[in-house]
Design brief:
7-stranded mixed sheet; 7 helices; Rossmann fold; 6-stranded parallel sheet; 354 residues; globular
Length: 354
């Protein structure tokens, strides 16, 4: 079968290869992959930044954002049937089965020895067929088939936002205004989710105000800010909640003064560049005196995928087919290389196997 494979840490090793079709064990299902979304993680793995093949393999099959149908089921699988439309979750429990992993919070793994499909020690889903443990599958209503491949990035946002509101139970909190930094798929989905919660949402990114990204933000009732015309430091309003989804250190640091009293800032990026903050004492003092809080959130759990299904229906009811507009390119497997060329105007590129 055809599969997108890499050989980390070798740079630019991604290729479309022929590999053996896997056979499901008793608690696994065989997925027939319809499409996978390519994101920054896939590109960084191809750049050699991280990624590790399964034990005994010299390659890693990419793909952690996937939509598939069930092609075969193991003897012990219950609750799934041939032809079911499904999305697999990404992370699997650590071998120590830590407190969080054994309680369904794999995204909060204590040991760091977890496994991740398409990223770390487990093959991904960017292949004609792939395996997944049935316990980590989410069944998708057919009405969401056109957008369900975006459920994985949405689940990351679902976790982050749910964590924000749990954390803020430390006080009486009635947030009114939110700032989302970045207008990739994570940023735009965050803007939609926060609009569902009734917040006034600003989204700051580098594309012009007549771009697709700006139009999507405006369509859901948000305010798009072109960072080229209005740099972050020149924003004249403060925010109860900031979601940082650029992975850019300078953007993250520049956002700190915009956090209002009792506010919370959530980091979703991975910050690889090195940068010194000269006024960090001032930053810490401001956090203390204003009861401000910063935290990071990574990955998601099955419960967040399930919440995403509910919110996808809500977004469709309120804003029509806006989520479909995030899918800006669909490629056949043979044209996969275009998906690894990052373009500012691209939001989500799919590689389709069916």
């Amino acid at each position: 079968m055809k599969a997108l494979v890499v050989k980390p840490p070798k740079r630019n090793s991604v290729e479309l290869a022929e590999i053996s079709t896997p056979v499901p064990s008793e608690n696994q299902v065989l997925l027939e992959t319809l499409c996978v979304g390519i994101d920054g993680t896939d590109r960084e793995i191809n750049e050699g930044a991280y990624g590790e093949p399964p034990e005994g393999s010299d390659f890693l099959v990419l793909g952690h954002e996937a939509l598939a149908r069930i092609s075969a089921v193991g003897d012990s699988v219950r609750g799934f049937s041939l032809g079911d439309l499904v999305v697999p979750t990404v992370r699997r429990p650590c071998w120590e089965n830590c407190l969080n992993c054994r309680n369904g919070e794999v995204s909060m793994c204590l040991t760091g020895n977890y496994y991740e499909h398409g990223i770390y020690k487990l093959h991904g889903f960017a292949s004609e067929y792939a395996l997944c443990d049935s316990d980590f599958l989410v069944k998708i209503p057919d009405e969401l088939e056109n957008v369900a491949v975006l459920l994985e990035p949405l689940s990351v946002v679902e976790k982050a936002v749910s964590q924000v509101f749990k954390i803020q139970q430390r006080m009486i909190w009635e947030p009114k205004r939110a700032l989302v930094l970045g207008a990739g798929s994570l940023g735009l989905l965050a803007a939609m989710l926060l609009r569902l919660k009734g917040l006034e949402v600003y989204c700051l990114a580098t594309q012009p105000k007549d771009s697709l990204k700006a139009d999507i933000v405006n369509h859901v009732g948000g305010t798009y800010v072109n960072a080229t015309e209005t740099p972050l430091k020149k924003l004249s309003v403060n925010f109860d909640l900031i979601v940082e989804a650029t992975g850019n250190v300078s953007v993250a640091i520049d956002s700190l003064p915009l956090l209002d009293v009792n506010g919370v800032l959530c980091f979703l990026g991975v910050y690889r560049e090195k940068m010194a903050c000269q006024d960090f004492g001032k930053v810490l003092t401001r956090m203390v005196l204003g009861n401000r809080l910063m935290f990071g959130s990574v990955n998601s759990d099955k419960v967040h995928f399930e919440a995403g299904i509910h919110d996808l229906f809500d977004i469709q009811r309120r804003y029509g087919k806006v989520v479909e507009r995030l899918i800006t390119e669909k490629l056949g497997a043979e044209d996969f290389r275009r998906a690894f060329l990052h373009e500012e105007t691209t939001i989500k590129t799919l590689v389709c196997f069916k």
